[in-house]
């Protein structure tokens, strides 16, 4: 089947040329390093829960990669977002400005904290929160009252902003941070998909007050399940670590708890897997660049292009992405490829259209809706040796 220069049969054939015959997943993990050795060592140590040398090693590796002062490993990326919200004093019935182009975990975490998402548009080139849309929303809808930013429509306090670095493409974090500083808002970066992505200032997330990562099984680096908070703030790090470790207060021969805490820390078994994965991060990122380049050569011959990171930034190529002409072409391609053993995926359904969030305030989301009709993710796994 062919639509406007894109031959679906040839695309499926090209995917099989890249990954071999049989079913081609969107993104699967590859374990070709020290995973089995470290897992065995962790089991033999008897320290398999949330303490042990592998948790420390994993956090230290992430500090070296991101260049921040503090990393706290969490059970998953959603828990990391939840802790980031609580550690930055987001309160019940506050509002958090975010994007509708995101995975549902971003908005779920906001609700876990008792706050409400407000959706503003994204930029077409980054698919991440638009600084221009953020500024326009605040100027049109918010006022400063008694040292707080209040949404004039809802009457609620706007406490924080959460951009998400979509598919690993760096957003405009420094511009968003400047707006947050001007208005007195907390910036929490959802960098779940962006380990190994860099903008003009360093690793993504480092411009925020606090940022989060995910190590789910479909990410560049996986711990099976897992996540992390990273920050340069001593206070945010200390509170996040305390809250996520059941708010435990230890003493001589006993332990106590001084707050309602959460059992959200990453087990050492998962950390051992992550340590081995991180040792191969640069190798895997290089291989993913080769996969993206191969897809781009194929698509260019058909009159299409893969999405590229904005100038001066570097993506981790988590999911190679391209835009089709309209929703009809998108749906036809997805149907053909998935029925022929090659997993292609559309962008998530916009969060503002889900039943639990459809009542939340938006700014119209013109670009978000345009992208929803056109975004397609291609198979992007590192190829096994």
Layout of secondary structure:
Blueprint (H helix, E strand, L loop, with lengths): L1 E2 L2 E2 H12 L15 H11 L7 H14 L3 E5 L2 H11 L7 E5 L4 H9 L3 E5 L10 H11 E4 L2 E4 L6 E5 L10 H11 L2 E5 L7 E2 L2 E2 L6 E5 L12 E5 L2 H11 L3 E4 L2 E4 L10 H12 L1 H21 L19 E3 L3 H13 L5 E2 L19 H7 L2 E3 L8
Parallel strand pairs: 4-5, 4-8, 8-9, 9-12
Antiparallel strand pairs: 1-2, 3-13, 6-7, 10-11, 12-13, 14-15, 16-18, 17-18
Helix pairs in contact: 2-9, 3-9, 4-5, 4-8
Can you describe this structure?
The chain has 385 residues and is of the alpha/beta class. 37% of the residues lie in helices and 17% in strands. The protein contains twelve helices and 18 strands. Helix 7 links the parallel strand 8 and strand 9 (186-190). The mean pLDDT is 96.
Would you tell me which CATH topology of the largest domain applies?
A: Aspartate Aminotransferase, domain 2
CATH superfamily caption of the largest domain: Type I PLP-dependent aspartate aminotransferase-like (Major domain)
| C-alpha termini separation | 32 Å
> Radius of gyration in whole Å, from Cα?
21 Å
> Helical content, roughly?
25-40%
Count of alpha/pi helices: 12
Q: Biggest β-sheet, characterized?
A: 7 strands, mixed
Q: State the name of the first-level CATH class of the largest domain.
A: Alpha Beta
Question: Care to give the gist of this entry?
Answer:
The protein is of the alpha/beta class and 385 residues long.
